[in-house]
Amino acid sequence: ALCDIICFLVCTPSLVVPTRAYSFVRSVYMGRRQFRWAGYKPCPCCCFDSDDEDEHIQPSSCTGHLETDVRVIWLLSPIFGLIEFIGFFFGLIATCSLIRSIQTYRDVRKVMSNPQREWMDRACCFNLDLQKVLLLNGLSVAIDLVFVPLLVLLVMSPLRLRSAVASLRKGLGWTTRKVILQQFILLLADMLLLVPLALVTLTWYRSRPVHQALGCRRVAADIEEGQLTEEQQTLRQESDSFKVLTEYHRALLRASGLLLLDVILLPFLLLLAIVTCYRLPILARSLPATGTRYHRAVLRQCWEMVLDVPFLLAGGVVICTVYRADIVIGCARRACQREGDFTAWDIRSAVGFQLVYLLRDTAMVPLLLVIVATIYRLPTLLMGLKARMSRLLAEAPEMQPLEIRLLAPRPTGRPGFCVRASKSPNLSRPTSLQLQVAGKGFWQSIADLKGGLAATAGQALLPLGLRHGREVDFDAIEHGRSEAVINVEIERTVKSASVEKFLRALPPHTELLIQLEGRLESGRQVVLLAVPLTASELLTSFSSPDSVISADCIRPNVLDEQDEAFNEEVAARIATLRGGSTSELRRDTWWPIVLGEFFQITGDFIHLLLLVALFALPWRLFMVIRQCFCEPADRRACRLAGLTFSALEFWSEECDSIAAELGPLTNSWAKQALGKTDCPNSVDMRDIDYDGYGILRRRDVKKVHQQRLKALGSRLSLARAGLRMSRRRWPDEGDEGWSMLSQAIDMQISLRADIFFWLLFIPELHKLLAKREVQPEEHTRATQQIHHHVLRLEAQRSEENAALLAGFKEKQATARRKGRVKSKALCGAILREHFVKGLTDLLAMPALLLLALTLYRLPSLRAQMHGRWDVAHLKVALRSQVLGLGADLLVLFQLIFLVLVLTATVVKLPDFLSGLRPSRGLRAARAWAAEKAMELLEGILELLLLLTAWKTYKLIVQATVFLLMSPGAMLAVAWPKECDRRIRFGISCLCSLLVFGSAFFLPWLFVVAGWVFILALAFVGYAAFNPGCGWTKPRREDWWSPSVRMTLPNVMAFSTIIVEVVIILWTGRCLMKDSMSIAVPMEHMTNVGLGVICVSIFLTILPMASDEEDQRDIVTNSAWRDAMLLLNDVLFLPLVLSLAVVALQSPLHRLALMYFGTAALLARGVWDVPVPYEARLDVRFVELNSSGRQLLLSLAVLAAASGMEITFLALCAAACLWIVAWALRRGSSVLWAEVLRVGGIAGALIAASVGIRIAAILWAVAVGIAAVWAVLAGVRRRADLAVSGLPQALDEVGRIRAQMCLWGDAESEPLSLDASVQGAALQVVKLEEQIPIERLKMHFLFSRPLWRQGLQSAHSFEQVLSRLAELREAIDAPCTRLLLKQLLGRAPLARGRRVPAPLVGEITAFAIPRLEMTPPARTGKGWGSGRMDFVALQQYAWTSARRYSELLQSQAVGRPTGETTI
User: Fold this and answer.
1) Which of 505, 512, 549, 508 is closest to 533 using CA atoms?
2) Which of 397, 1034, 1203, 1384 is a plausible cystine mate for 1038, CB 3.0–4.6 Å?
């Protein structure tokens, strides 16, 4: 009952619809109360046994059994009512409309007449199909509203209305709508194309396709379907299918477009007919044309017309001049007659070339007039024109070639050929010879490759006159001999690669004729030789080793019956190739002669001006006159060669000094590489660098290695420049003696390069040993052989150098005194040379003054001179230094500009300052500034995005925070390391902020007390928890010597004593005489003191703000150390005194003083970096000694400023006691310096309280005690050193080292023993570094770092001596090949016989094989002038060492190698 009530309430709203009310009554009346889902259950009579539901077919007569739940019908009733309401609404709209009422009636009737009724219709009185029909017809009314106006518009065109009406007869469906839409679009197209149709109809030649399309369409529309042709059926189908445009419309559009193109191209066609009427026949050949072919032809001809216009004008100009009109007219005639493959571009190029030739000839006319006006060059011009315009001789040759060989330059030289030919015995010596090269195809190929101008110029230079003694020997053709050998060498230097490239570019079958013409003594001109060749034959002979030409025209052994036929064939080829001499060629032969003569006149005029200018330089004018008219030719050659020998000697001296440095340098690198456990490649042979005495520093090994090698190579630049200039002026190599001397100089340079290669090969073997790729014995043998080989090379070089000098002296002794009159070219060269030298003479003095003003270039200038104070060498050195000065100035300006940019932008300035390393040089600073400037440019985008302001604020905040936290960071070092780092830093920062903040609130005495308490705690913490930082005792690596050198840091250390005494004296006198007088002078120094304090704080914090990898570089930098020594030691008390009085009243000055004091006193304990020998600081103190003394003295100055006299005296006394206590604990390296300090402070106190006289006495006593102490301590140390026997042992090892070093002992640093333990240890370290690595045993090399550390921690001479003994025992001298041969040769056998020499050689070769390695070939650029690329040599040495290692591994089987492991 509850379900019935709910379902009834749901059904109640739908009862408004009549059909739903009827359905409700019918369901109540007919329904059964069964709780089943609505469905249809078939009758038993209609049920079959098949499982397939599709086979359950109910007969039409069976109504079935309706078993439907009434509640289901009630629940569905609202939905059915809503659907019926919508359907009846749309059906009412369709019924009321005229266009859809009939169709709606038909569809409803069809649905209602369907006998098959669904269960909803039977049970619920709801017909879904009926609702669909009503809904679709209602919606179709809205769609029809769009197509009805289109149908009405079709009435305007009966042609278009016919198809629409025919489709309406079939019903208003989607097909009908498509037809209406299509016909409407076609109607619009008809209306838009009316104007084009009228225009096309007026032009009959364009309307024909339109008429054909329109006629076919009308016929297809009128004829019935069965009577249509195939084309008409296609048109009918086209009209039936939905297409926007028909064939008629497309034909009309195509015709109208072509008509538009016709109108556009009409002006061009008229212009074509007027300007270039000769192109109309070509255009006519394109007719009849379909589509746009005709229009493309018109455009093509118009473009050709545009190209023709400039050439028509050029041709008109050429024809008007008549001079070259025949060539242009001939080309045009051949093109019109279509001879050959003449194209339009051939005619244009011919006309263009003729115009260029005409302009060239016109330009030559003024030059010709100049030559005629000068007169003195006119005879030469006429003779040259006569020779060039002569025809090619067509006579039979007087000589027959038997063998021809090319003289090919290897790699550069003079080209030529050598001919062995048969001749008549009556043919005598000619008086002149000239060379001709003919062949039309040959010159045409050159024109195709290089251009017509190059071919014309080459032909114009022919015939080429050959000069006797320089290019050919006329005496080779002797009277009475049947054969002659003629060598022809053209006096032009070419490259072999260029000649080969040119021959390969020529077509292989290109023929040319080489004809040698001569004039006999009788005056008759004859053809001596005529040889026809091909390009392939020349290329083959050029590539062959013997360079013999294998040509068909050369038959040295020909039978008699074949002579006639062979001669006729060769004569025919020669006659064919000679046909190239025409008047056209002679027309182009005169201009090169005119141009050459004009250049001669120009050169003569320039030389005349130079001669006039030399009157201002009389010493150079005298040299020119002497060398041109008084100096014999042979003496001049000897003088030029002497310059080369002088430059070679200077170059050899530079090479000797470089070799002396290269050996120890590579030896040091190899030792450091061997001390490592891994050596990955050839470049990483040194990953750690022993900087001085025990400091290990990480570096970029590859960069450092290459930079040092390049620096060594750059030292040869000055010597190379002089050698290159002198070798350019080497005497004529046509003389065999000078050629041999030049080859000897090349051999000297080559031997020097070989020596450098072997010197670089040795450390590569050391690296292989470090990587365990070579056994120790093989390594020792190889290095030994290299040593002997280098010594042999050096001996060979010395012998050849002596022979070279002897040969030069012989040439000087045999020099003739003839030939005083020089040629014109040689006189010009002498004049130009001395003019340039005169200019350099004038510039040398200002350059020298400029270098003197700069000062820093003078030492390098003196080093470059090497005692060679001749003028030429001085000018070369001055030029090098001036160029270097200019480069330095450019780098300086760049650095200044970049620094200004970085300063103005601020953003990258801290990064730049933190990474700046002044000690690395100006160029390194410029590179660093450029890097930061590039980063700044990258940040411009951030500036545009308004981020730069935020970064600036962020940087300021970071700098401020870091400035506040840096004292806390220093205090955090004093904490135990077991404590967490963050806790240490936090508490330390809090304490420092509290102390510094109290300066603004608490009284001055309380602030100072708190500050001193914090510093005292820090001192105790450093001493207790950081003992290895040198705070209470020296570090093991520190340089701690009682001997004092005269260096700047030591001077500043003694200056600290003087400054402290002066400050104590000043404050004491001011305090005890007038308590207020101290403030008067200090008020003016406050601002200066603040500035210096800011600099000191910046330098102190700079390492903290840097990256970890840069911190060590900063704190080990000598400039940074010296600056900190000056600011924190020398100027410490003056800065405290400058702020002491003002700090009593000003909290800011009080804060600055406390901050400076904290940074200066604690900074020493922060950086655990040892002070090496290279720091040049001998007056050393432990850090607690120095900081405690400065703290007590600063408190004394503050007490004096506050007027506390007793406190001042007590603190000064405490400082003296502090100094004495630490002196007793060896807290100072130089104790007599502490005596001076204590005596000075005590004397200052006495001078302030008692008087200056007593103080002077005390100071004199202190100085005397210190002097006596220093002398006695030095005498005692020397006595201990002499007793220990260390000097004798050191001398013995030094002599052994001098005998073993390959680079000799001349350039080695002399060893001088210092009278201290550490000084002696340092000398032992230096001695070990100079010993070659191959002379040391393997166990010592691998324990070398420990041995060095033991020397650093030595405390007595006996310990140093024991380390030296270890070094002496580690020196090994293995057996050499020579010693082994001598030992085996003296070994006795049975019956008193000796081992045979061949057997000794075999045993020696097996035990110690030869090193089969060859130095690189010298083929690089500039090696002839002494260029040495050490980087390339090192790379080649590494490659050779790798090959040697592989060779040893391949031969290792069966060889005695001794130890198998290292």
Assistant:
1) 512
2) 1034
Alpha carbon distance 754, 612 (integer Å): 50
Tell me how far CA of residue 433 lies from CA of 379, 406, 520, 580, in angstroms.
20, 19, 9, 21
Tokens of 664: 């120890």
Q: How far is CA 1033 from CA 290, 971, 1181, 1218, in A?
A: 109, 20, 9, 15
Radius of gyration (C-alpha) of the chain in whole angstroms: 56
pLDDT band at 1375 (very low <50, low <70, confident <90, very high): low
Q: What angle do CA 959, 962, 965 make, to 5 degrees?
A: 155
Give the span between the Cα atoms of 788 and 312, in whole angstroms: 81
Sequential DSSP letters for 183-245: HHHHHHHHHHTHHHHHHHHHSHHHHHHHHHHHHHHHHHHHS-GGG--HHHHHHHHHHHS--SS
Helix (H, G, I), strand (E, B) or coil at 49: coil
Q: How far apart are CA 319 and CA 354, in angstroms?
A: 10
Percent of the chain with pLDDT over 70: 78
Q: Which segments of 1167-1310 does DSSP mark as H helices, in order?
A: 1183-1202, 1205-1224, 1231-1249, 1252-1284, 1286-1300
In this structure, are residues 1057 and 1233 in contact, taking their beta carbons and an 8 Å threshold?
yes
Query: Do 1038 and 1170 touch, CB atoms closer than 8 A?
Result: yes
Cβ neighbours of 1130 (radius 10 Å): 19
Q: What is the pLDDT of residue 263?
A: 83
Cα–Cα distance list, 520 to 398, 400, 466, 528 (Å):
12, 18, 14, 10
Phi, psi of 402 (to 5 degrees): -105, -30
Q: How far apart are CA 1284 and CA 1359, in angstroms?
A: 10
pLDDT digits (tens, 9 = 90+) for 1136-1166: 888 888 888 888 888 888 888 888 888 877 7
Report the distance separating Cα 6 and Cα 24, nearest Å. Answer: 15
Beta bridge partners of 534: 511
By DSSP bridging, strand 494-495 and strand 432-438 are unpaired
Q: Are 551 and 531 in contact (CB under 8 A)?
A: yes
Averaging pLDDT over each range in 373-377, 931-935, 1118-1122, 1309-1313, which range is the top one? 373-377
Angle among Cα 1407, 1410, 1411 to the nearest 5 degrees reads 130
* pTM assigned to the model: 0.54
Residue 1069 forms beta bridges with which residues? none
Q: From CA 425, how far away is CA 398, in angstroms rounded?
A: 11
Buried b (16+ CB within 10 A) or exposed e, 835-851: bebbebeeebeebbeeb
* 756, two tokens: 């450098």
Residues 6 or more apart whose Cβ sits within 8 Å of residue 860? 881, 884
Phi, psi of 525 (to 5 degrees): -90, 130
Q: Which helix (H) or strand (E) holds 1031?
A: none
Which residues are CB-neighbours of 1220 under 8 A, at least 6 positions away? Answer: 1234, 1238
Listed in sequence order, the residues at least 6 apart from 761 whose beta carbon sits closer than 8 Å to its beta carbon are: 786, 1413, 1437, 1440, 1441
Closest by Cα among 1061, 1162, 1167, 1159 to 1121? 1167
Which among 181, 175, 179 is positioned nearest to 149, based on CA atoms?
A: 181
Q: What are φ and ψ of residue 15, in 5° steps?
A: -75, -10
- Work out the angle at residue 846's Cα, subtended by the Cα atoms of residues 842 and 847, and round it to the nearest 5 degrees: 100
- Is the CB of residue 17 less than 8 Å from the CB of residue 84? yes
Number of neighbours of residue 651 by Cβ within 10 angstroms: 23
What are 301-326's pLDDT values in tens digits? 888 888 888 888 888 888 888 878 88
